[in-house]
């Protein structure tokens, strides 16, 4: 007889933004579902990333869930871009409000999942030896949850404290007076550097490639403003539904060449002084897709950096020369560039003086050794597919997902992949949630998956699998959308590069570039055509 504690209809891996909502939808539909979560509490990204400065680059009120009027009415955001502790509190509030904790198992890391063909069920093994079973396996494992450390010799010999930003110690880190090194200047490095510059003794930043950073322009939200925001949630979410990235900011379709220079500059100054991703996604569309306008805008941003950094040599080092603005993820910052005007902050360009080794006392470059008390690795993630690769997921015929995706992901709608029946890859590669404001598109993907599961149950079906034709077509479409896109001309996690992971040194088709509205339309069509592209049995 099936054991009610281990045998479920649905197992959801991950209790982050995605897993929380998926669980809620399952319970609403009266589906027996459980969440397995490696952390000791819910929150996912916001549970783990406790480094100083961690915060949204999405407006808080566009990042919160939109589905529950009571949550919207009861929750108040304190800042336009909330910091990690507040976001974690928010997700905990949602979990408790929806009474989900009883269906979540924490400290439960999934090691492997195996599809049993004859039974149309998954067997799921945890690292603690437990084994569970389910009909449908839903991954909500995050797109930036497989942290990667740099391949620098001697890392283990360092005698001070060292950690990846993702694993910033829960109990906090004493920074006052400490000699701190930060390696990496992506969105994470930029946040942590700006936040700790005036809290540490000495801060040395090891930069390989600078990014185009721009001001976040955060600000507090008082009760009155929160009331105004609450009253406009309908418009806020409607606006997010219209824009390609599901942010408040969408492209300006005026033709770049037809806008007089003075008008263009006034617009750009406005964007630079405005909140959030307007500076990137609210720009002229031409700037985002065409090289010449992109170069003009990049120079505009470079001049802002030159204005903000006192030492011209340091300023030039902080200005990207190998890629145009917005072709990699734009880190939003608060006084990041000003940090380099401080006497206690030092910038080391590792192209000039490469890191040779981590030593027991610090970091040795070709220029000599510097001693540190703390080394912070802000070196990023094996993005989007890394979390999948870290679980041994085997489908029909014993093939593993890691093998299937070795040369890059192949999916149908970013939600399923042939050979892996009853596996729904929420927040997986080639879906819209990974290339946009995460929660709005998570809601879309979760609703779609929940309806599919409900449909199958309603029709007495026990198996759903993407066809190879459908996934070939989808993946070809994704590849086509990359053609000519400016972001393919540079290496970043958007395009699947990671110098710290074997084989990740070529372009991978990781994200959907067609925009969230088109993606939603496509999902609806698939349903309308009776789950076209899926084999149901
Ligand atoms: P990112 O954006 O991948 O940044 C990682 C940074 O670490 C980046 O500056 C890398 O330089 C640098 N890096 C990685 N390996 C090395 C080595 N071996 N030596 C020197 N420098 C290295 O990750 P983040 O965590 O900042 O951001 C990830 C996302 O999280 C972000 O986009 C948000 O959406 C949230 P590189 O540029 O590769 O030369």
From the structure above, extract its key features.
single chain; alpha/beta; 537 residues; binds ligand NA7; globular; eight-stranded mixed sheet; 19 helices; five-stranded parallel sheet; FAD/NAD(P)-binding domain
Q: List bound small molecules.
A: ligand NA7
CATH architecture of the domain at 7-42 and 100-146 and 382-483 and 512-536: 3-Layer(bba) Sandwich
Per DSSP, the total helix count is: 19
Radius of gyration: 23 Å
Shape: globular
Query: Which band does the percent of strand residues land in?
Result: 15-25%
Describe this entry's structure for a reader.
By secondary structure, this protein is of the alpha/beta class. The protein has a domain of 210 residues: FAD/NAD(P)-binding domain (3-Layer(bba) Sandwich), CATH 3.50.50.60. Helices cover 33% and strands 16% of the residues. It contains 19 helices and 20 strands. The strands form five sheets. Strands 1, 2, 3, 4, 5, 6, 17 and 18 form an eight-stranded mixed sheet that branches. Strand 4 and strand 5 form a beta hairpin. Helix 1 runs parallel beside helix 17. It is globular and about 70 Å long. It starts with 6 loop residues before the first strand and ends with a strand. The model has no long low-confidence stretch (mean pLDDT 97). Ligand NA7 binds next to helix 6.
């Amino acid at each position: 007889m099936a054991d009610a504690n281990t045998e479920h209809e649905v197992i959801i891996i991950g209790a982050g933004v995605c897993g929380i909502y998926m669980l809620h939808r399952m319970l609403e539909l009266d589906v027996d579902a459980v969440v397995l979560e490696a952390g000791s509490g819910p929150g996912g990204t916001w549970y783990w990333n406790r480094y100083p400065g961690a915060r949204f680059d999405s407006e808080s009120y566009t990042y919160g869930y939109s589905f529950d009027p009571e949550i919207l009415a009861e929750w108040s955001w304190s800042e336009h871009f909330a910091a990690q502790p507040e976001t974690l509190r928010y997700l905990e509030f949602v979990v408790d409000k929806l009474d989900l904790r009883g269906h979540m198992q924490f400290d439960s890391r999934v090691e492997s999942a195996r599809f049993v063909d004859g039974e149309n069920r998954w067997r799921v093994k945890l690292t603690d030896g437990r084994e569970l079973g389910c009909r449908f396996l839903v991954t909500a494992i995050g797109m930036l949850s497989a942290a990667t450390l740099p391949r620098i010799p001697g890392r283990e010999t360092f005698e001070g404290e060292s950690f990846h930003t993702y694993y910033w110690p829960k109990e906090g880190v004493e920074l006052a007076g400490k000699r701190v090194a930060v390696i990496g200047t992506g969105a994470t490095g930029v946040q942590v550097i700006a936040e700790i510059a005036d809290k540490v003794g000495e801060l040395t930043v090891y930069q390989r490639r600078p990014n185009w950073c721009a001001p976040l322009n955060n600000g507090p939200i008082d009760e009155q403003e929160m009331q105004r925001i609450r009253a406009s949630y309908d418009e806020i979410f409607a606006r997010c539904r219209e824009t390609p990235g599901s942010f408040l900011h969408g492209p300006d379709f005026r033709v770049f060449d037809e806008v007089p220079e003075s008008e263009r500059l006034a617009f750009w100054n406005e964007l630079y002084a405005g909140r959030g991703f307007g500076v990137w996604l609210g720009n002229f569309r031409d700037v985002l897709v065409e090289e010449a306008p992109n170069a003009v805008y990049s120079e505009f941003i470079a001049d802002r950096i030159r204005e903000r950094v006192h030492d011209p040599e340091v300023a030039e080092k902080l200005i990207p020369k190998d890629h145009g603005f917005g072709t990699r993820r734009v880190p939003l910052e608060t006084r990041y560039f000003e940090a380099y005007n401080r006497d206690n902050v030092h910038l080391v360009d590792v192209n000039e003086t490469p890191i040779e080794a981590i030593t027991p006392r610090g970091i040795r470059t070709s220029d000599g050794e510097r001693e540190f008390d703390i080394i912070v690795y802000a070196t990023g993630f094996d993005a989007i597919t890394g979390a999948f690769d870290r679980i041994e997921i085997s489908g029909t015929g014993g093939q593993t997902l890691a093998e299937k995706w070795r040369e890059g992901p192949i999916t149908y709608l970013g939600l399923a992949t042939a050979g892996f029946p009853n596996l729904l890859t929420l927040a997986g590669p080639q879906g819209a949630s990974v290339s946009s404001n995460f929660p709005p598109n998570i809601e879309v993907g979760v609703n779609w998956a929940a309806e599919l599961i409900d449909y199958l149950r309603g029709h007495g079906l026990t198996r759903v699998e993407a066809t190879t034709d459908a996934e070939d077509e989808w993946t070809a479409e994704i590849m086509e959308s990359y053609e000519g896109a400016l972001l393919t001309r540079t290496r970043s996690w958007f395009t699947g590069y990671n110098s710290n992971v074997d084989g990740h040194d070529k372009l991978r088709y990781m994200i959907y570039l067609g925009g969230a509205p088109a993606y939603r339309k496509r999902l609806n069509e698939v349903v309308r055509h009776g789950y076209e592209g899926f084999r149901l049995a």
